[in-house]
Every structure is written in structure tokens, then in C-alpha cells.
Amino acid sequence: MQLTAQDQQIIDFLPKLDTEEKAFVLSQIKSLIDKNAPSTGKQTLEQYNNEIKVAEDRIDDGSYFTHEEVEELAKKW
Questions:
Q1: Per-residue model confidence (pLDDT) at position 49
Q2: Is a pLDDT exceeding 60 seen at residue 38?
């Protein structure tokens, strides 16, 4: 099977993601191919819960901006 340029890009980007980001990407891919997923564009409960888990992990890792930091960043826009 020959890979398309997009297939190769996906393969090249995967090692750059951490575990939680990979889990999120995987959940998104699954939702795209899951024929039972809502066609309205709404998230499934599993997707929602996974996004919450990823966000909580980022908070635990200290990977977030405080409200004050966001205000300072917004001033530079």
C-alpha cells in the first residue's frame, strides 16, 4: 500500500504528541469513522470525557495560563 502525502504527514506528526494528545487524536479519528456517532457535529460522551481528562492532565502538569496571563497576552494581539 502506497502512502499519500497526508498519510505521511500524520505519521511524521505522531511522535511529536504526548500521550494525552495522542489519546485525543485517536478519539477524534474514531469518531470520524464511527458510523454510530451523531451526524449533528455534537460530541459523544466519550469524546467529552476524554477532552476533560486531557485538560485535567494539562492542569496537573502546570501547562496552562492564568486569567491574568491571558489578559496580558490579549493586550499584544
A1: 92
A2: no
- Of the pLDDT bands very low, low, confident and very high (cuts 50, 70, 90), residue 33 is confident
Give me the domain span that covers residue 38: 19-75
Task: Mention every residue, 6+ apart, whose C-beta is less than 8 A from residue 11.
Answer: 3
Q: Three-state SS across the chain?
A: CCCCHHHHHHHHHHHHCCHHHHHHHHHHHHHHHCCCCCCCCCCCHHHHHHHHHHHHHHHHCCCCCCHHHHHHHHHCC
26 in a domain, yes or no?
A: yes
